[in-house]
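Protocol step 4 of 5: obtain the predicted structure for the target chain.
Materials: sequence only (see below). No template structures provided, no constraints applied. The aim of this step is simply to have a reference model before the mutagenesis design in step 5. Sequence pasted as it appears in the construct record:
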Amino acid sequence: MAEHDRDQLEHHCPDSHGHGSPNPHGSSQVHEEQHNFKEHNKNYFNEHGHHYNDHPDGHELARRLGAAMINAYPFEEDSTLVLDYACGTGLISRQLAAHAKCIVGVDISQTMVDQYNQSLFNQGIPPEEMRAVCCDLTTEAPNQLDGMKFDVVVCASAYHHFPSIEDVTKALASYLKPGGSLLVTDLMKLPSAESVQALFPTGSLKSNLVAHKGGFEEADIKAVFEGAGLINFSFVTACKAKRDGYPVQIFLASGTKEVAEEQ
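Step 4 output (structure tokens):
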């Protein structure tokens, strides 16, 4: 996967079938569907990741979303530890690099991770400052990030790819330090079924990549943030853009991991 800066506009879109509503066919089918979306995304971005950075509109969108994140959290270049989930080739990470002590990117696509790390190597940036690893933090595999906790976890324009945004949000919140913040960007809810069809035609490749079509409402994101134990929820417009000439809005949601009271 990736922060999907260009694909943000190409694939951005949540849900026509709800977030967490009961499935009449049972949990086994839900699990299979979740697995299929992950596999489709991993395979797609493994195949196409080599050319991901070729699209200038993706770099511009990353710049705008990075600026919105920097405005939303008080980054400190000497101390802030950042986790960039669904990092892709690192377009968002590079926007945040000058404002953080260390950034760890995570993606399920090995090709995207290789692109991320190769770019850092070419620039002489040491892994102690920035690096990416290939793993899925929603699994129960232990110590995937060597016990690291982060001041900020960011996830840019990837929520629409995740079969369960509840599971992802809980997983990302678990990697926050107490008082740390989760920052998520994605597509705001589209105004009509016609607009959804225009951006995500039935039967297109995107139908295998996008778990949620139609854009997220504030209530959708607030519910999963609160379900993950995050407080101080905020939901604002990060920027406006166009996809195939169609105007869309990208939100920035944020929440904070509560600091436990001392006994």
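Step 4 remarks: The first strand starts at residue 81 and ends at 85. Residues 1-32 have pLDDT under 50 and may be disordered.
Proceed to step 5.
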